[in-house]
Amino acid sequence: MKKIYLLTPGPTTVPDAARAAEGQPIIHHRTTEFEDIFKRVSEDLKIVFKTQNPVLTLAASGTGAMEGAVANTLSAGDKALVVQGGKFGARWSEICEAYGVEAVNIDVEWGDIAEPGVVKEHLDKDPDIKAVFTTLCETSTGTLFPTKDYGEIIRERPNTIFVVDAISGLGACDMETDAWGVDICVAGSQKGLMIPPGLAFASVSEKAWKLAETSTLHKYYFNFKKARKSLEEKGQTPYTPAVSLIVGLGKALEMIKAEGMDNVLKRHALLAEATRAGVKALGLELFSKSPANAVTAVKAPEGVDGGEIKKTLDKKYGIKVAGGQAHLKGKIFRIAHLGFIATFDVITGMSALELTLKDLGYPVELGKGLCAAEEVLSRA
Amino acid sequence: MKKIYLLTPGPTTVPDAARAAEGQPIIHHRTTEFEDIFKRVSEDLKIVFKTQNPVLTLAASGTGAMEGAVANTLSAGDKALVVQGGKFGARWSEICEAYGVEAVNIDVEWGDIAEPGVVKEHLDKDPDIKAVFTTLCETSTGTLFPTKDYGEIIRERPNTIFVVDAISGLGACDMETDAWGVDICVAGSQKGLMIPPGLAFASVSEKAWKLAETSTLHKYYFNFKKARKSLEEKGQTPYTPAVSLIVGLGKALEMIKAEGMDNVLKRHALLAEATRAGVKALGLELFSKSPANAVTAVKAPEGVDGGEIKKTLDKKYGIKVAGGQAHLKGKIFRIAHLGFIATFDVITGMSALELTLKDLGYPVELGKGLCAAEEVLSRA
User: Fold this and answer.
1) I need a surface site. Which of A103, A194, B106, B356 has the fewest CB within 10 A?
2) Three-class SS of residue A336?
């Protein structure tokens, strides 16, 4: 008998109530029954995004909405600034390249952030930059980027939009779409929104809609204008929506509203802090210089392979965590505290980590990480 | 107490076993557990498609794979031939237009088909045509197009690929992808595959892969080459897959294999024939000149509004059917017999139709449609 615990940064555990909602007999989408659900979901998403802008829902994974953000606003030959310090920041560059958009990259070391001043310098130097693409929480390194500070710099520039990949951050890290001047905020269903993967979201500001008027890049399935029209005029999507996931999302959003968005964020902050305190008490080091509240990246200690930690946690204890990607393979492991996660998930993860480290011969004082984590959690 | 019966041409009823599979706790996709499922699903799809080519699975609705078929094979300024006689045929033209591909349209009256000779004429006249886009079953009119005959004409031409939208037809109408020389066959999850919407599929032939080498249209999320590489090398998808739908699909494909693909098609043929016999016995006329086995389009009788038929079936009897689209609004209604559908679903639909027609003042001899349908069904 092995119980499985999902502590990965997406997919995250789907609450029973949402799973039950998804599993109801499928309904037809061209009905008022579906429209009522979809309109409510689209409104409730605004609470999570902290925006008054329309939030579009696409049947795709998050990358689809990232592609849409590029294809709907830019034209071939346009210049964009990309802040990249990990696998997902790099995805913005890849998409720009695939579309013939010139990406000016601010490359920061993985685990680090770009100082807002560096973004400002680039924009001052190059007024042709039409869009700045960044990441709220870089999942590959567990790093929170200073989105608010970037927003202050970009919002003053009438010809530059600010686009944020908040896929793994939304619902865990504070994301004030409107207050921070974020023109397009992209998200996915399988992270803080607690639903299986298959839905992508994008909130779009007036400034971005205006830029969209001039965009000549090819788009069809991810046409934001069509999606907005369909949503606003009919409570519909232009193409068949992922009905069961949207029904499940309705339930997950009810849970978020019942808890209160600010409480959701406070919960994540506390769970993240407890996790960080626990791993530090075990003598481990955090990988990120700016740790996010969605996922904690931990350096594998000297002489222990990060891949082995991940594998032992999984095979022996049923705890799923993520390893390191690209050049960080074997060097770090990543414990998520994201979505449908509470006190005893952190405790469980910490206990399993202690046992795993002991198994792998790392000198660990059993209970030390647990104590430190519990100390933080007791403040709840 | 009202029981709901879904007789719409997608979404179709999801079998309990598939719903239960979807509703299991979510698993992480970067695991051998998921890879095993995904590889098996990808192989099993070949049985449904009747192909040896790789079948790609995308997190999107069917339209996403249609867009992919255009974006991965063509370049701006290329010429394509589109056979269109309904809403979904027209979608090929729209996608071509959105991508700067010149669509040469063969426009046939809705409900009719294009004779293969017409396709041949166009190709003879215009050897620059790089792709022919058609529809297996045009859902908006319930029409089966002669895919096999088109294939015979196109397969001889080394520089022209044959692309078929089989979204609503696959699993109900015979579709011999390889035998008929179909280079890209596109499908969706919510029709004959009996799963909620959110997955799109495309099988891709060597001829199409070769053309893909020269394609310069922009693509990222729907990049077929990346999807193939990821599938073949790792049993993975390049971007997060719609895990729960794929798990459900695994179960639905098991059901299809247990029944046997040819039996699945025979079942659909019989249910469709019974439906046609029933509506004709009631004095109603079929709309299509070439009725498909996925959905039957029926002309609303003189003096009765098709929209009222649809509405009464729904509101009074809990039977969901589709109405007419575009200029056919109010003129036809469409009863699907597609996916997880058996004898008594047709009987139920027929009974409800008789009761509805009586309610609306159409002179109906109760039981006449039922008798005719049952007569056909008794041959099973």
Assistant:
1) B106
2) strand
Is B35:B234 a contact under the CB 8 Å cutoff?
A: yes
Question: Given the DSSP bridges, would you call strands B102-107 and B319-320 parallel, antiparallel or unpaired?
Answer: unpaired
With a CB-CB cutoff of 8 Å, which residues 276-335 of chain A face chain B? 320, 322
Q: Check if B242 contacts A (Cβ < 8 Å).
A: yes
The string of pLDDT tens digits covering residues B103-156 is 999 999 999 999 999 999 999 999 999 999 999 999 999 999 999 999 999 999
pLDDT grade for A380, boundaries at 50, 70 and 90: confident
Minimal Cβ distance to B98: which of A28, A61, A218: A218
ipTM comes to: 0.95
Cβ(B193)–Cβ(B48) below 8 Å: yes
Bridge partners of B163? B133, B184
| pLDDT 10s digits, A86-106 | 999 999 999 999 999 999 999
Largest CA distance in chain A: 63
What tokens does A257 get? 């509203």
- d(CA A229, CA A227) in angstroms, rounded, equals 6
| Cα radius of gyration (chain B) | 21
User: Which of A197, A179, A180 is closest to A189 using CA atoms?
Assistant: A197
Which of A269, A292, A284 is closest to A86 using CA atoms? A292
Beta strands A79-84 and A102-107, pairing class: parallel
| DSSP letters for B244-281 | HHHHHHHHHHHHHHHH-HHHHHHHHHHHHHHHHHHHHH
For residue B11, cis peptide bond before it (omega within 30 degrees of 0):
yes
Q: Any idea which fold A16-258 has?
A: Aspartate Aminotransferase; domain 2 (3.40.640)
pLDDT at A2 over 90: no
Cα separation, A254 vs A368, whole angstroms: 37
Q: CA-to-CA distance for B90 and B107, rounded, in angstroms?
A: 9
Contact A264, A111 (CB under 8 A): no
Residues 6+ apart with CB under 8 A from B254: B44
Please state the rounded mean pLDDT for residues B211-215: 98
Cβ atoms of A7 and A356 closer than 8 Å? no
Say if B5-10+260-377 and B16-258 have the same CATH topology: no
B188 contacts in chain A (CB < 8 Å): 240
Task: For the domain made up of A5-10+260-377, give the CATH fold.
Answer: Aspartate Aminotransferase, domain 1 (3.90.1150)
How many other C-beta atoms are found inside a 10 Å radius of the C-beta of residue A69? 27
List chain A domain ranges: 5-10+260-377, 16-258
- CB-based burial of residue A315 (10 Å sphere; 0-12 exposed, 13-18 middle, 19+ buried)? exposed
Cβ neighbours of A29 in B, within 8 Å: 11, 197
- Please answer whether residues A239 and A221 qualify as being in contact, where contact means their C-beta atoms are separated by less than 8 angstroms: yes
In B41-183, which ranges are E strands? 55-59, 79-84, 102-107, 129-135, 137-138, 143-144, 161-165
pLDDT at residue A1 in the model: 81
Q: How far apart are CA A92 and CA A84, in angstroms?
A: 8
- CA nearest to A56, candidates A260, A248, A226: A226
Distance from CA of A219 to the nearest CA of B (A): 6
The pLDDT value given to residue A183 = 98
